[in-house]
Amino acid sequence: xxxxxxxxxxxxxxxxxxxxxxxxxxxxxxxxxxxxxxxxxxxxxxxxxxxxxxxxxxxxxxxxxxxxxxxxxxxxxxxxxxxxxxxxxxxxxxxxxxxxxxxxxxxxxxxxxxxxxxxxxxxxxxxxxxxxxxxxxxxxxxxxxxxxxxxxxxxxxxxxxxxxxxxxxxxxxxxxxxxx
Length: 180
Fold this sequence. Notes:
This protein is mainly alpha-helical. Helices cover about 75% and strands about 0% of the residues. It has 9 helices and no strands. It is rod-shaped, with a radius of gyration of 31 Å.
């Protein structure tokens, strides 16, 4: 099942064309329009309306559309193999989130590896990931600066002594004070 075919569009359709096609088909297959029809006609219209709605939700969102295009192209390339991205499984579930996790990138093959790499790359370029990476870099840099500053202060105040030697002196002084 192809979302573009459901909406009667080409793969190069704009968001405006997607909206227009959805509105037209939604009006045609809306369950309320078929409330007084026979049960068979009502069920067919409801099923078609769900398919049209799912296609619209996927194609109108840029990220979902890109994922769908990758998945569709991957399943098209692997359609002859037993382990390729079986897109029929995805569509039979009619649940985007669950089927996305179970079937989005096939089971093996070089196309699967490329797709997983694309997903990792896409995740690594998200704003949240980049902000977290920048924060981690700032914290690591600050840790280095504080450590280097502490060493510089120590050397200025305690020339010739290492930290361990200074701690031994402190311990000896405490022991001497305790004996008094």
